[in-house]
Amino acid sequence: MSDCSNNGCGCSATPTTNQPSPSIDHNRVQYRIENMDCPTEEALIRNKLGALEGVTGLQFNLMQRTLTVNHNLNSLAPIEAVLKSIGMQATQIKPTDTSAEKPAPKTKWWPLAVSGVTAILAEGVYWIQIGNHWAVIGLSIAAILLGGLPTYKKGWIALKNGNLNMNALMSIAVTGAMFIGHWPEAAMVMFLFAVAELIEAKSLDRARNAIRGLMDLAPDTATVRQQDGSWVDASANTVPLGAIVRLRPGQRIALDGVVTSGHSSVNQAPITGESLPIEKAEGDLVFAGTINETGSFEYRVTAEASNSTLARIIHTVESAQGSRAPTQRFVDQFAKIYTPTVFVIALLAACIPPLAFGYPWFDSVYKALVLLVIACPCALVISTPVTIVSALAAAARKGILIKGGVYLEKGRKLAVIAMDKTGTITHGKPAQTDFIDLSGDGSGVRILAASLAARSDHPVSLAIARAATEAGLTLREVTEFSAIPGRGVRANIDGHTYQLGNHRLIEELKLCSLELEAKLNILERQGKTVVLLANQTGVIAICAVADTVRETSRQAIAELHTLGIKTLMLTGDNIHTAQAIAREVGIDEAKGNLLPEDKLKIIEGLIKGANGNKVGMVGDGINDAPALARSDIGFAMGAAGTDTAIETADVALMDDDLRKIPAFVRLSRATANVLIQNIVLALGIKAVFLILTFTGQATMWMAVFADMGASLLVVFNGLRLLRH
Questions:
Q1: What is the dihedral of CA 197, 199, 200, 201, to 10 degrees?
Q2: How many domains, the chain?
Q3: Last residue of a domain, one of 621, 638, 654
Q4: How confident is residue 99, by pLDDT bands cut at 50, 70 and 90?
Q5: Which residues in 516-659 belong to E strands, given as ranges?
Q6: Are the beta carbons of 449 and 476 closer than 8 angstroms?
Q7: Residue 609, burial from CB neighbour count under 10 angstroms (0-12, 13-18, 19+)
Q8: Residue 251 has pLDDT above 80, yes or no
Q9: pLDDT of the residue at 135
Q10: If we measure between CA atoms, which residue out of 287, 281, 329 comes closest to residue 308?
């Protein structure tokens, strides 16, 4: 069913301006169309606007009531003229519009209430008078006009454009009932239909409010320091990059930033889903929408309101709603066949029995009218987007950002999940545990190793550099620095070339020896990552670094095993360290000494052998990007504040808690169950009433009740996922 607010104008939105359509120099425009929340309106727009020359693509978001048009026109006037011709005056959404979705116009209740009263009076007078008294006809017409005028208007527009949507079907059914003398029933059917649409619209608003609730997390104002040192409350949308914002205890953070002074604990649950507050001090990131709990601090703004982490989350969730899940595509295709098929059956049911078997025309036409009411597949079609949106919103609240319904549905089929080690299973903040000087130079060779390590951003290299600086050593100047992907780095210091890298690099340089292998074997079997410093003649130092395993990793792996999912570790670290970490957390299999291309080949092999099941990859670094992209579902760890991770990952985990992956799988499976339940429920009710109609036991008002009940049941069932 469509959102039928009794405004008497069909599907429309009040334009924000009365200015003519502007000349444009881009090929994409977005409109908000109030009351467009059902495939009946979508089909009408798609058929009419899709045929317009110059329109190259249409994307619908029924839950947010938005239409995106790709085109190569010089003006928006032709697009807006087509929308207006089918009764839909749309409000253009400007690219700079960062405001939340505007609520639908308030419904006028009194026409619907009077329609109900007159429909009941018509029934009462009919039974008292035992027939179609003039009072019955007058009351019925009043009820139909008060409750059904918007339906008739939208139905007429649909019929003019050759579209058999619900409004057209109901208009035909009610008109037919009046022609065969079923005045009270026609009035009651139209009233019940209007009530059903209103209830369904309010129910759908609950799913929309889940997204709107995310938008409301960030406050509208922020306390900003002025040039003269004073503090002024300003609109968050006007605060520039680099501005200093002050925050008091209990306040919500309005913009992303970096703490410049003070400290506090911040509740990041709205962004990352973390249950415990996070301590923030100078240099730490803070995110819009999170809550300052105890202390007071100042921070420097690093992102405008329209580009904050919260804004990107909202944009991602809204975009995900617009991407159709496989089940939704199937249901939409089914609906295109179902409605015209039932319409043809209704015509045959009206004509064949009287013409071929002498059956009364009155009874045959009545059955056909009941079939027209049953012909609407709205309960079936609306169930899928409501379910998907509810699941996406529930996941976003818990810090799991899913990029579309397709990944939400794939999650239930995950059979294998591969994951990186550093920063994923471990904290990614290793510390140097051993330094072995093989050159006899003491601190000199340690300075060389730390100088090369300081130029790399890998956590292991940073640990080596940090240990040297904490020991008070002064690093040397490095020239001709270059990275060796998956192996290490190379650079010049004082005219001499040095390499700092892993075991694989040293083997490729042919600098290994039996004595060196023995030393490395001891360290690696202790679960330590070994980094070696070499010059042109041999290895001159060994650095050993250890990382600590996240406590949540053990629980996450155990939960994945409970769900029947095999786990695999893929790391560039040595095989001994990989196996030691894998044993510690319970991972099924570990593979080490891997380059980015090696990880990619392993993922490709897993996909080939998955037999229809899906393969996931979890990572947090650039080295994982090829494998993440190739996997069926790529999970990015710790995506909060990271543009690239949010934009490129299939599923972005906003913090570093690996337990969000089994939570995602459980949500995916729950979503699949709800989708199946809704499809069975919607089709089952339709099937029952088709049988009741042909056996002569169904009436029009019963059919409307069934349609309304089915729609509400599938909507409420889908909304259950908001509490998952």
A1: 80
A2: 3
A3: 654
A4: very low
A5: 529-534, 539-546, 566-570, 589-591, 614-619, 633-636, 651-653
A6: no
A7: exposed
A8: yes
A9: 86
A10: 287
Residues in contact with 618: Cβ distance below 8 Å, sequence separation at least 6, in sequence order: 417, 418, 419, 420, 424, 635, 637, 658, 661
Q: If 0-12 CB within 10 Å is exposed, 13-18 middle and 19+ buried, where does residue 462 land?
A: middle
541 with 464, same domain: the answer is yes
Residue 299 sits in the same domain as residue 405? no
Average pLDDT value over all residues in the chain: 83
The answer to whether residue 277 is domain-embedded is yes
Task: Determine the longest span between alpha carbons in the chain, in angstroms.
Answer: 115
In this structure, the answer to whether residues 613 and 510 fall within a common structural domain is: no
pLDDT on residue 591: 93
pLDDT confidence bin for 16, thresholds 50/70/90: very low
* Cβ pair 667, 391 in contact under 8 A: yes
Last-in-domain residue among 307, 335, 359: 307
Tell me: do 541 and 564 sit in the same domain.
Answer: no
pTM, 2 dp: 0.71
By C-alpha distance, which of 432, 430, 436 is closest to 520?
436
Q: Are residues 482 and 572 in the same domain?
A: no
Whether 541 and 553 share a structural domain: no
pLDDT one-digit tens code per residue, 428-482: 778 898 999 888 887 889 999 999 999 887 888 889 999 999 889 989 998 998 9
Does the annotation mark 233 as catalytic? no
Residue that wins the pLDDT comparison between 194 and 660 = 660
Does 111 reside within a domain? no
Distance CA 264, CA 297 (A): 7
Q: What is the CA radius of gyration of the chain?
A: 32
Q: Is the pLDDT of residue 117 over 50?
A: yes
pLDDT for the residue 582: 92
Domain that holds residue 591: 400-426+549-654
Least confident interval from 106-110, 421-425, 714-718 = 106-110
Any idea which residue has 């600098």 for tokens?
511
**How far is it, in rounded angstroms, from Cα 550 to Cα 421?**
11
Residues 3, 256, 420, 573: which is the catalytic one?
A: 420
